[in-house]
Amino acid sequence: PEAVPEAVPEAVPEAENGVDESGEALPEILAEEELEEEVEDLDAETVDKLEHLALDVEDFTMRGVKKRAQVVRKNSLERSGGDKFVYVRMEEIAQSFKNSDVLKSVTWEVKTGDRIGLVGQNGSGKTTQLKIIAGQLEPTKGEVIKSSPRLKASFLRQEFVDELDTNAILRTEFEKSFVDESKALARYKEVETSLTDASQDMEKMESLLNEMEELRQNIEAMDAWNLTSRIDKILPLLGFDQEDLEAKVGSFSGGWKVRMEIW
What's the burial of 197, exposed, middle or buried (CB within 10 Å: 0-12/13-18/19+)? Predict the structure, then answer.
């Protein structure tokens, strides 16, 4: 009979990442329950060190970096009440009036911490540039670049004194700043009055009630119900006292009128 050769054991390749050469997962060394029992046996100090180690490891991953950046930005926004760093840039701005160039290839920017002064002769386009930044005037060419769509710009016009109603009281003048809120509140009162007069007309009453509900939602969204308290909070920021609210605008000096227009 022929001799039968002895079987030679095949070399088993080393597993890589818990997977053998065939792609099948290798059995875990410890069952999940056994691992949990071992963790439970650890003292509080060791568990705390392991948790900190896990956080340190996460910091080195891209996910950890993004997560940390989001937390930092969120905290900065909460502390500052908005964007911590802002800027506005005029890029190649040109402006023409009646075929006459007032501005040509104007490029400059202002950012958080800057104090910029526009110096030039009358008619050289200083006010025009401010109107373009504030969005009150569209440039003929170029664009205004802002750090955020939420960023708003405004400026104090030289002719502000002529626009103040000297016979109005200060509270009324402040209320004019809240244009949308004031209009909504005034319309709400009008609808209330009309609703009383239309008590016999059911169709008209339904229309008025629908409008009143829509107005109510808009007023709540704008926080217009609290307009009086909002104005009261503005006063000390501008240096006015509570008693000043009932004083006529004409009784204030030019410097105080400037503060009214700033708001």
Answer: exposed
